[in-house]
Amino acid sequence: MQRLKTTLLALLATLSLGAQAQEAAIRKNLADRLPNLPKIDEVSRTPMPGLFEVRVNGTDIFYTDPQGNFLIQGALIDTRSRTDLTEQRVAKLTAIAYRDLPLKDAFTMVRGNGKRKMAVFEDPNCGYCKRFERDLAKIDNVTVHLFLYPILGADSVEKSRNIWCARDKAKAWTDWMLEDIAPADAKCDTSALQRNVEFGRKARINGTPTIIFADGTRVPGAIDTARIEKFLTDAKP
Fold it and tell me: Can you give the three-state secondary structure of 35-54, one letter per residue?
């Protein structure tokens, strides 16, 4: 038994040294051959034999071989489970703790008992956001924290200001997103909107809608009613 234990420990040590050597080779070769590639944050194995993940800029994912001879950018799909492993990885890297969201800079919409929670960053001129809002309107028993995130241009800033300064923010928002009723001109302190943009940049929220569920799961882009329900059900803060 002791001999077997010693052999296993030696094997593990050999494998560890081999993995370290592969990582060192990947880091060196990619840095030498691609000087414009950002500093590598992490090199790790993927479920696909011979393929390594290369992470840069915190959340940007590339793939390479053990020698760093090739560099691939794109989605790694597990065809057996039909799972986008790259999407899962990025979602984990970009997760935001719900408690860290600056909820004072959002307005709140409550439907039903409001027990389930989610936050959304949206631009009023985002077509995908309008589609998402139509699906979200079918969801009950939820509290939605809506962060106005005007990143598409000057008109987005103006519409966001008018919605934020409206007497009933939620009504002004849904009137515009669901009925195409433009918000009335209004003025007030809109520093919250600028803080939203600054927060989003730091959190790498690069598009709208971006949805954050109570367990920190981040979903970029519009999803339909069934997927919203699933994420709300799965979320465990």
Answer: CCCCCEEEEEECCCCCCEEE
Express each pLDDT in 30-89 by its tens digit: 999 999 999 999 999 999 999 999 999 988 999 999 999 999 999 999 999 999 999 889
Q: Which has the closest alpha carbon to 48: 24, 72, 25?
A: 72
Is residue 70 located within the same domain as residue 103?
Answer: no
Sign of CA dihedral 196, 165, 188, 105: negative
Q: What would the pLDDT profile of 139-160 be if each residue is shown by its tens digit?
A: 999 999 999 999 999 999 999 9
Domain termination site, one of 49, 75, 93: 93
Count of domains forming the chain: 2
DSSP 174: H
Query: Do 116 and 192 belong to one domain?
Result: yes
49 and 10 in a common domain: yes
Its pTM stands at 0.72
CA gap 208, 153 in Å, rounded: 13
* C-beta atoms surrounding 91 within 10 Å: 16
